[in-house]
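Listing S7. Sequence submitted for prediction.
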Amino acid sequence: MEKFNIDKIRADFPILKREVNGKPLVYLDNGATTQKPNSVINSIVHYYTDMNSNVHRGVHYLSQISTDAFEVTRKKVQAFINAAEDKEIIITKGSTDGINLIATCYGREFIHEGDEIIISAMEHHSNIVPWQMLCDEKGCKIRIIPMNDRGELDMDAYRSLLNERTKLVAVTYVSNALGTINPVNEIISMAHQHGAVVLVDAAQAVQHIQIDVQALDVDFLVFSGHKMYGPTGVGVLYGKEKLLNAMPPYQGGGDMIKEVTFEKTTYNELPFKFEAGTPNIEAGICLNEAIDYINSIGLDNIEAYEHELLQYATEKLSQIPGMRFIGTAEQKCSVISFVIDGTHPYDVGVILDKLGIAVRTGHHCAQPVMDRFGIPGTIRASLAVYNTKEEIDVLVAGIQRAVNMLV
């Protein structure tokens, strides 16, 4: 971890210098969105002051440099996840947009009545609802991979669910509610043995774990810019070229066309076939800076540091009376989710906020997870590269204070 300097990293994030309710901000809601480094913030200002123009359509200078910068991001993403071609990188609004694109375009074309879609019991709502909508439309069926009390998928049950009717498997790489790292290599391999394609939701993984889509042999993968130190409103859908070419477009208009007459429209080639209309240009360009920032530290260094933080936080929090962790998988990443006997997560969250500590409370857009554990919600502390052990100590002290007030 030669390049890792936590003081320097924290200095890169101006919001960490502010106070909330008269207390230094302790930001532990990174699973919802991460803060932004100066390089990303400055790149947003640079775009609007020096480059602002529409992309892919103009011959004038500003359009050309904006287009070039936008396409640099596509190539940067290709390298970041080791895609075979930059045309396999579709710029979206975020992970949810990418999942809905696949449900709409792949689902409507290749999934039919009586077919089955497998998802896991720990999915975010954005990887549940689009498939329910597809099943309502097509008459197909969703099957669920159960999980054990530790928040780990039952792989034997998964194996038994796979059959000739299975057309698609959609699973999260890292659970936003539990922090579980799922065995996606095995999930993908087993699905392919039955001829099914696999979509992996990497929204909670790509900023913590090195991802190689070719090594995984994953068919589709989605993630969001704002959870990896980048802007909101931009994300990525990776898809294998053969599959993307076989799919109909998602929306009509703008860049997704090659030629339009009143009689017929010819669709554009990849990746533009799936990028109708003016994109979020500023965010697309600035995502490049977020990837550069992660690369400058190194994902190996980030993973090692965050794992150390996770172990430290788990040990310290476990000493609080009445503490019960929700999600104790052997393989975990970045998330500590818990409840405390005699308290409601919302009440604890409000008290922590008064102390300048930002955590997430509730069901985390994963209500089936909460139903599985028989609880209304949890308190979730989610970690990022700029968090420290000192902040964990502040969190522990804040929770102890909340418990003393509420119990």
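Caption to Listing S7: primary sequence and predicted structure tokens for the chain studied. The longest strand covers residues 166-172. The radius of gyration is 22 Å.
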